[in-house]
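A further point concerns the way the authors explain their paired sequence and structure data. The central task, working out the C-alpha coordinates from the amino acid sequence alone, is never made concrete. I therefore recommend that a typical entry be quoted early in the introduction. An entry of this sort, consisting of the sequence and the corresponding C-alpha coordinates, reads as follows:
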Amino acid sequence: MTAKPKESIHTRIWREEPEPNNPFATRAAYCHGYDVYGDMLGQARWAQMLYLLFRGEAPTAEQTHLLDALALALANPGPRDASVHAAMCGGVAGSTAAASLMAALSVGAGRYGGAREVFDAMNIWADAGHDMAAWVRRASAWESASLGIWPEAEHPAGFDPYGATTATAVLQTLDGLAGMGPFSNLHWLAANRAQLEQAMGVPLAMVGVAAAALSDLGFTAPQGEMLYLMLRLPGAAAHALEQGQYGVKKFPFYPVELTDDPLQREAL
Protein backbone atom coordinates (compact mmCIF):
# COMPACT_ATOMS: atom_id res chain seq x y z
CA MET A 1 0.00 0.00 0.00
CA THR A 2 1.38 3.37 -1.04
CA ALA A 3 1.73 5.90 1.78
CA LYS A 4 -0.35 9.05 1.39
CA PRO A 5 1.98 11.95 0.52
CA LYS A 6 2.31 14.73 3.08
CA GLU A 7 0.50 17.94 2.26
CA SER A 8 2.41 21.22 2.46
CA ILE A 9 1.32 24.82 2.88
CA HIS A 10 3.53 27.01 0.73
CA THR A 11 4.36 30.51 1.94
CA ARG A 12 7.46 32.68 1.74
CA ILE A 13 6.57 34.32 5.06
CA TRP A 14 6.40 31.53 7.60
CA ARG A 15 8.01 28.15 8.26
CA GLU A 16 7.01 25.84 11.07
CA GLU A 17 8.64 22.77 12.51
CA PRO A 18 6.27 20.31 14.24
CA GLU A 19 6.72 18.66 17.59
CA PRO A 20 8.11 15.13 17.15
CA ASN A 21 5.06 13.60 18.86
CA ASN A 22 2.37 15.83 17.30
CA PRO A 23 2.49 17.15 13.73
CA PHE A 24 -0.22 19.71 14.56
CA ALA A 25 1.76 21.38 17.38
CA THR A 26 4.52 23.85 16.59
CA ARG A 27 8.01 23.27 17.97
CA ALA A 28 9.56 26.26 16.19
CA ALA A 29 8.25 28.98 13.89
CA TYR A 30 10.33 31.17 11.60
CA CYS A 31 9.20 34.46 10.07
CA HIS A 32 11.32 35.12 6.99
CA GLY A 33 14.04 33.06 8.62
CA TYR A 34 13.88 34.60 12.10
CA ASP A 35 13.04 32.27 15.00
CA VAL A 36 9.95 33.98 16.41
CA TYR A 37 9.63 32.26 19.77
CA GLY A 38 13.25 31.23 20.24
CA ASP A 39 15.01 34.50 19.35
CA MET A 40 12.58 37.37 18.66
CA LEU A 41 10.26 37.02 21.65
CA GLY A 42 11.37 39.49 24.32
CA GLN A 43 13.95 41.05 21.99
CA ALA A 44 12.04 42.43 19.00
CA ARG A 45 9.32 45.08 19.11
CA TRP A 46 5.82 44.95 17.66
CA ALA A 47 6.79 47.40 14.89
CA GLN A 48 9.74 45.21 13.93
CA MET A 49 7.49 42.16 13.66
CA LEU A 50 5.03 44.08 11.50
CA TYR A 51 7.80 45.30 9.21
CA LEU A 52 9.30 41.84 8.96
CA LEU A 53 5.96 40.26 8.10
CA PHE A 54 5.12 42.72 5.34
CA ARG A 55 8.55 43.56 3.92
CA GLY A 56 10.35 40.26 4.45
CA GLU A 57 13.37 41.85 6.09
CA ALA A 58 14.23 43.35 9.46
CA PRO A 59 13.86 47.14 9.70
CA THR A 60 16.64 49.53 10.61
CA ALA A 61 16.48 51.34 13.94
CA GLU A 62 15.18 54.48 12.18
CA GLN A 63 12.51 52.53 10.29
CA THR A 64 11.41 50.86 13.52
CA HIS A 65 11.18 54.23 15.24
CA LEU A 66 9.16 55.70 12.37
CA LEU A 67 6.69 52.81 12.22
CA ASP A 68 6.30 52.93 16.01
CA ALA A 69 5.55 56.65 15.89
CA LEU A 70 3.14 56.29 12.98
CA ALA A 71 1.29 53.53 14.83
CA LEU A 72 0.93 55.82 17.83
CA ALA A 73 -0.37 58.68 15.68
CA LEU A 74 -2.96 56.43 14.00
CA ALA A 75 -3.96 54.32 17.02
CA ASN A 76 -7.02 56.36 17.87
CA PRO A 77 -8.64 58.57 15.22
CA GLY A 78 -11.05 59.70 17.95
CA PRO A 79 -14.80 59.29 18.44
CA ARG A 80 -15.65 61.79 15.68
CA ASP A 81 -13.98 59.58 13.08
CA ALA A 82 -16.56 57.59 11.13
CA SER A 83 -14.81 54.26 11.67
CA VAL A 84 -14.61 54.73 15.44
CA HIS A 85 -18.20 55.93 15.50
CA ALA A 86 -19.21 52.71 13.73
CA ALA A 87 -17.42 50.62 16.35
CA MET A 88 -19.05 52.63 19.13
CA CYS A 89 -22.47 51.92 17.61
CA GLY A 90 -21.60 48.25 17.74
CA GLY A 91 -20.44 48.50 21.32
CA VAL A 92 -23.44 50.39 22.63
CA ALA A 93 -25.81 48.03 20.83
CA GLY A 94 -24.27 44.96 22.44
CA SER A 95 -22.66 43.63 19.28
CA THR A 96 -19.86 41.13 19.54
CA ALA A 97 -16.28 42.37 19.63
CA ALA A 98 -15.71 41.04 16.13
CA ALA A 99 -18.82 42.82 14.81
CA SER A 100 -17.70 46.16 16.30
CA LEU A 101 -14.26 45.86 14.75
CA MET A 102 -15.67 44.76 11.41
CA ALA A 103 -17.90 47.85 11.46
CA ALA A 104 -14.81 50.02 12.02
CA LEU A 105 -12.94 48.27 9.23
CA SER A 106 -15.83 48.59 6.80
CA VAL A 107 -16.49 52.26 7.44
CA GLY A 108 -12.79 53.10 7.58
CA ALA A 109 -11.91 51.36 4.34
CA GLY A 110 -13.05 53.96 1.84
CA ARG A 111 -11.84 57.08 0.10
CA TYR A 112 -12.80 59.69 2.68
CA GLY A 113 -10.06 59.46 5.28
CA GLY A 114 -10.00 55.68 4.93
CA ALA A 115 -7.56 53.03 3.83
CA ARG A 116 -8.41 53.31 0.13
CA GLU A 117 -7.40 56.94 0.26
CA VAL A 118 -4.01 55.83 1.59
CA PHE A 119 -3.79 53.44 -1.35
CA ASP A 120 -4.55 56.29 -3.77
CA ALA A 121 -2.08 58.67 -2.11
CA MET A 122 0.71 56.08 -2.07
CA ASN A 123 0.20 55.55 -5.79
CA ILE A 124 0.71 59.28 -6.29
CA TRP A 125 4.01 59.04 -4.42
CA ALA A 126 5.02 56.09 -6.59
CA ASP A 127 4.11 57.87 -9.84
CA ALA A 128 5.15 61.45 -9.14
CA GLY A 129 7.90 61.12 -6.56
CA HIS A 130 9.25 64.57 -5.69
CA ASP A 131 8.32 66.29 -8.95
CA MET A 132 5.99 69.10 -7.90
CA ALA A 133 4.37 69.51 -11.31
CA ALA A 134 3.80 65.75 -11.65
CA TRP A 135 2.54 65.55 -8.07
CA VAL A 136 -0.04 68.28 -8.59
CA ARG A 137 -1.09 66.89 -11.96
CA ARG A 138 -1.47 63.37 -10.55
CA ALA A 139 -3.27 64.45 -7.37
CA SER A 140 -5.60 66.72 -9.32
CA ALA A 141 -6.73 63.80 -11.48
CA TRP A 142 -8.74 62.30 -8.64
CA GLU A 143 -12.04 62.54 -10.56
CA SER A 144 -10.95 59.73 -12.88
CA ALA A 145 -9.55 57.51 -10.15
CA SER A 146 -12.33 54.91 -10.08
CA LEU A 147 -11.09 51.42 -9.28
CA GLY A 148 -13.15 48.23 -9.23
CA ILE A 149 -15.91 48.32 -6.67
CA TRP A 150 -14.80 51.66 -5.26
CA PRO A 151 -16.74 54.79 -6.15
CA GLU A 152 -14.78 57.64 -7.65
CA ALA A 153 -12.86 59.79 -5.23
CA GLU A 154 -14.41 63.13 -4.36
CA HIS A 155 -11.24 65.01 -3.41
CA PRO A 156 -7.46 64.81 -3.90
CA ALA A 157 -6.09 61.82 -2.00
CA GLY A 158 -4.32 62.80 1.21
CA PHE A 159 -6.10 66.10 1.68
CA ASP A 160 -9.04 67.23 3.79
CA PRO A 161 -11.91 68.32 1.52
CA TYR A 162 -13.66 70.16 4.36
CA GLY A 163 -10.64 71.61 6.15
CA ALA A 164 -10.13 75.35 6.56
CA THR A 165 -6.48 75.13 7.61
CA THR A 166 -4.07 72.30 8.31
CA ALA A 167 -4.98 70.73 11.63
CA THR A 168 -2.38 71.13 14.36
CA ALA A 169 -2.30 67.38 14.97
CA VAL A 170 -1.48 66.83 11.28
CA LEU A 171 1.33 69.40 11.40
CA GLN A 172 2.74 67.93 14.61
CA THR A 173 2.68 64.42 13.13
CA LEU A 174 4.32 65.51 9.88
CA ASP A 175 7.05 67.47 11.65
CA GLY A 176 7.64 64.71 14.20
CA LEU A 177 7.87 61.90 11.65
CA ALA A 178 10.02 63.91 9.23
CA GLY A 179 12.55 64.48 12.01
CA MET A 180 13.08 60.79 12.67
CA GLY A 181 15.54 60.01 9.91
CA PRO A 182 16.39 60.22 6.22
CA PHE A 183 12.84 59.81 4.99
CA SER A 184 12.72 61.68 1.70
CA ASN A 185 8.94 61.73 1.15
CA LEU A 186 8.24 63.14 4.60
CA HIS A 187 11.00 65.73 4.21
CA TRP A 188 9.70 66.75 0.79
CA LEU A 189 6.12 66.91 2.03
CA ALA A 190 7.10 69.05 5.01
CA ALA A 191 9.06 71.42 2.75
CA ASN A 192 6.36 71.66 0.06
CA ARG A 193 3.15 71.30 2.09
CA ALA A 194 2.06 74.91 1.70
CA GLN A 195 2.60 74.87 -2.05
CA LEU A 196 0.72 71.59 -2.43
CA GLU A 197 -2.17 72.85 -0.32
CA GLN A 198 -2.39 75.99 -2.42
CA ALA A 199 -2.42 73.93 -5.61
CA MET A 200 -5.07 71.54 -4.26
CA GLY A 201 -7.15 74.25 -2.59
CA VAL A 202 -7.52 72.17 0.57
CA PRO A 203 -5.27 71.37 3.56
CA LEU A 204 -3.21 68.25 4.09
CA ALA A 205 -4.92 65.50 6.10
CA MET A 206 -3.56 62.83 8.44
CA VAL A 207 -4.12 60.23 5.72
CA GLY A 208 -1.67 62.14 3.51
CA VAL A 209 1.01 62.08 6.19
CA ALA A 210 0.43 58.36 6.73
CA ALA A 211 0.78 57.68 2.99
CA ALA A 212 4.09 59.55 2.86
CA ALA A 213 5.44 57.68 5.89
CA LEU A 214 4.34 54.26 4.65
CA SER A 215 5.94 54.98 1.25
CA ASP A 216 9.14 56.04 2.98
CA LEU A 217 9.13 52.74 4.85
CA GLY A 218 9.10 50.90 1.52
CA PHE A 219 5.60 49.47 1.69
CA THR A 220 3.58 49.06 -1.50
CA ALA A 221 0.17 50.71 -1.83
CA PRO A 222 -1.71 47.45 -1.05
CA GLN A 223 0.53 46.88 2.00
CA GLY A 224 -0.03 50.46 3.17
CA GLU A 225 -3.78 50.12 2.76
CA MET A 226 -3.77 46.98 4.90
CA LEU A 227 -1.53 48.46 7.60
CA TYR A 228 -3.62 51.63 7.81
CA LEU A 229 -6.71 49.51 8.51
CA MET A 230 -4.88 47.57 11.22
CA LEU A 231 -3.15 50.48 12.93
CA ARG A 232 -6.40 52.41 13.50
CA LEU A 233 -8.20 49.52 15.20
CA PRO A 234 -6.98 50.03 18.82
CA GLY A 235 -8.99 53.23 19.27
CA ALA A 236 -12.08 51.73 17.69
CA ALA A 237 -11.85 48.75 20.07
CA ALA A 238 -11.38 50.87 23.19
CA HIS A 239 -14.26 53.21 22.33
CA ALA A 240 -16.56 50.29 21.51
CA LEU A 241 -15.87 48.73 24.91
CA GLU A 242 -16.41 52.06 26.67
CA GLN A 243 -19.77 52.61 25.00
CA GLY A 244 -20.80 49.09 25.93
CA GLN A 245 -20.30 50.08 29.58
CA TYR A 246 -22.02 53.46 29.27
CA GLY A 247 -25.17 52.28 27.54
CA VAL A 248 -27.49 53.94 25.03
CA LYS A 249 -28.49 56.92 27.20
CA LYS A 250 -24.91 58.20 27.30
CA PHE A 251 -24.12 57.67 23.64
CA PRO A 252 -22.22 60.85 22.78
CA PHE A 253 -23.66 61.81 19.41
CA TYR A 254 -26.31 64.19 18.27
CA PRO A 255 -29.75 62.98 17.20
CA VAL A 256 -30.13 62.07 13.55
CA GLU A 257 -31.18 65.16 11.61
CA LEU A 258 -33.70 63.88 9.10
CA THR A 259 -34.55 66.12 6.18
CA ASP A 260 -38.01 64.55 6.01
CA ASP A 261 -38.77 63.66 9.62
CA PRO A 262 -42.25 62.01 9.94
CA LEU A 263 -42.62 63.42 13.47
CA GLN A 264 -42.16 66.95 12.22
CA ARG A 265 -44.66 66.41 9.43
CA GLU A 266 -47.24 65.11 11.91
CA ALA A 267 -46.71 68.17 14.11
CA LEU A 268 -47.56 70.57 11.25
